[in-house]
Amino acid sequence: MTNATRTRVLLVDDDPDLLRLLALRLTAAGFELETVSNGVAALSRVAVFRPHVVVTDLRMDGMDGLSLFDALHEQYPTLPFIIMTAHGTISDAVSATQRGVFGFLSKPVDKNELIALVNEATRIGLSNTTAVTQDAWRRSILTQSPVMEELLSQAQRVAQSKASVFIGGESGTGKELLARAIHEASGRADGPFVAVNCSAIPENLFESELFGHRKGAFTGATRDHKGLFRAADGGTLFLDEIGDMPKSFQAKLLRALQEMRVRPVGATEDEPVDVRIISATHADLDKAMAEGNFREDLYYRLNVVTLTIPSLAKRPEDIPLLATHFLRELAGTYGERVKGFSPEALEALVNFDWPGNVRQLRNVVEQCVALSSTPLIPLTLVQRALRDEPSSFLPLQEAREQFERNYLIRLLQMTNGNVTHAARLAKRNRTEFYRLLNRHGMNPALFKSFPDVSP
């Protein structure tokens, strides 16, 4: 069996000695293997490892083998399950197979019987079009929530059309992840996906940033800039926080969307573009329209299809899955000394309201991982992290980058894009200052004054 076609087996057992023994047997038989010691960890690992077969113990602390099967069968109905137990009875086997479990093994597990059953399951796992391939477009979205599954089903359907999509939902729910998934599921997947946060663009730079500009269009425009619309040509343009777009630019955006043509600042002719627009905001656009701050005709042009991401509190079954995923993701930064959450800690996470949604959950997990002195994160540490209201704090690196970006924008605005003057105010040499600008993708020429071309 070649590496390209090796069967991937996920082995789940809370007995470390048996887990090690079975892992040796399966590896020696040529299978690609991942091992975890409990059901909660398995939920996260499946989303990343994408096994062809799951072999799990029946009796485990916390989530048992059948509960794990039920949780995964919702999302991966064709994924074969083999359940092992030292307490096996005929009624257990009948119950398991009636629920869709592929096979049932009694402990002590016979090596040849195990390998034969995994090989038999492989013929099913590899012959069907399973989640391993069909879910590639949504691989960044981890969920076992029926509510989210329905949303993703709608997203996949709308991805096949040309309709503009508006994504609603609270901050931190993952609107950009959904936008990218729609792009990946569409016929434009081979084209670019360009994301822009409208709240991060100074008002006088909107037209140049989105439509581009010609060399010499204004003082400091020393080269052509094609703009984000043309950068996304043939693909998808994601306009995040569309509610923060200035009213002065909204008419121009509407015209561009109606005609699929843009005119760079300083140009005399329009240029055609082919982009699919996905927009999002956490703001109340109905209120913004009522107050005259958002054009109604633009709203309906953007809002052909609406997808609203549910808050994390409305999909609590995703909390253990996401928390375990974040814990493993953070192992690269903090090491693998922390293995999971105590049952009480996990229960506290599930029962919390999560006003900051998935982003807040990740911050809480990071704080717990950073401070934990034990392999299992205790309840007290989770309670402390929740009391600290991490939703109001950004991770240190993200906060530093946000401050640096805003600081540079203010400097360039104050100095009218004069790098020498801005570097002097920042007490940095020009070379270092240019390096900072490049890191944040900032062009000082865009901050030089040019005539207001608003209608």
Task: Provide structural commentary.
The chain has 455 residues and is α/β, with parallel strands linked by helices. The protein is 47% helix and 12% strand. It has four domains: 3-134, Response regulator (Rossmann fold), CATH 3.40.50.2300; 138-308, 3-Layer(aba) Sandwich (Rossmann fold); 314-392, Helicase, Ruva Protein, domain 3, CATH 1.10.8; 399-447. The strands form four sheets. Strands 2-1-3-4-5 form a five-stranded parallel beta sheet, sandwiched between helices. Strands 7-8-11-6-12 form a five-stranded parallel beta sheet. Helix 7 (146-159) packs across helix 8. The modification 4-aspartylphosphate is found at residue 57. Residues 141-370 form the Sigma-54 factor interaction domain. One of its GO terms (molecular function) is DNA binding.
Structural class of the secondary structure composition?
alpha/beta
Query: What's the arrangement of strands in the largest beta sheet?
Result: 2-1-3-4-5
Q: In angstroms, what is the radius of gyration? A: 26 Å
Low-confidence runs of at least 5 consecutive residues: 127-134, 389-393, 450-455
Largest sheet: 5 strands, parallel
Per DSSP E runs of 2 or more residues, the count of β-strands stands at: 14
Strand content: 5-15%
Shape from CA axes? elongated
In CATH terms, what is the architecture of the largest domain? 3-Layer(aba) Sandwich
Q: And the CATH topology of the largest domain?
A: Rossmann fold
